[in-house]
Design a protein that fits this description.
12% strand, 38% helix
Length: 259
């Protein structure tokens, strides 16, 4: 596709956010976490760029995640109104969940939502995420649940979702999928990679078992020190610790996300 470059039309800060968000879309596709065109990743522009207005970047509706570039991302306001000339449509209904999270959590820059097979499978299990893997312990340290209310296009669901999320960074949408939020795009991606891994491990561990009683749970005392363990494991950098390696991988495979 011939997509006109936005680089000369936006600030350097917005351009960098666009490149990182486009990279995140490509990585979600690369790691098998996309669902055709039916989920979204949003990123909030810094107040220094917007003059204090609430502006966000989101995917152009109808493009596959592995087609998204920095220039194709669409800038919208909290009501998902497009704020610049673009040939691409957006999906206001798909932004409902994201806008609810952004409105309630000023600390969050990026909201990442998926409909993966493993994520939906675990979201349909009454016990939710089980403490049966190292990956699950990282998730359980900051996990919340939100009950299914149908396809999430009704604004009145927002306050209930906000109340359920609270200050958690992992949200399991019952019978629906997974959501992570982070102070950076890198943080939200690493959280989702971990969330998805925990769910895949759980589905595999339960396969062929006689029930959850046959699994070996992690000692509950270990869960209390997980946040510190994660900080140590990433050198205090969180998602920024792995993000450069992810960008190098994308650059080797297809660097067009930067355009």
């Amino acid at each position: 596709m011939q997509i006109p470059s936005m680089k000369a039309l936006v600030t350097p800060e917005e351009w960098q956010l666009r490149r990182d968000l486009a990279a995140c879309y490509r990585l979600v596709a690369l790691y098998g976490m996309s669902d055709l065109v039916f989920t979204h990743i949003s990123a909030k522009l810094p107040a220094s760029v917007t003059g204090g207005e609430e502006h966000f970047l989101i995917n152009p509706y109808g493009l596959l995640f592995d087609e998204i570039t920095a220039s194709s991302l669409v800038k919208v306001d909290m009501a998902c109104n497009t704020l610049h000339d673009t040939p691409f449509p957006v999906n206001p209904a798909g932004f409902n969940i994201h806008s609810a999270v952004h409105a309630a959590r000023p600390d969050v820059t990026c909201v990442l939502h998926t409909h993966t097979r493993a994520g939906v499978a675990v979201s349909a299990q009454k016990a939710g995420v089980l403490p049966i893997s190292q990956q699950s312990t990282f998730v359980l340290a900051s996990l919340a649940y939100h009950d299914y209310e149908g396809v999430a296009f009704r604004p009145d669901e927002g306050p209930r979702l906000q109340a359920d999320l609270g200050q958690a960074n992992f949200l399991m949408l019952r019978n629906h999928g997974l959501l992570t939020c982070g102070a950076t795009i890198a943080d939200a991606f690493l959280a989702m990679y971990t969330f998805e891994s925990a769910c895949r491990i759980q589905v595999d561990a339960l396969a062929g078992q006689q029930g959850m009683d046959s699994l070996a749970p992690v000692n509950p005392a270990i869960l209390h020190g997980v946040a510190e363990a994660m900080r140590v494991q990433t050198g205090g950098l969180g998602g920024a610790f792995v993000w450069p390696t992810m960008l190098r991988r994308l650059d080797r495979l297809d660097a067009s996300y930067q355009d």
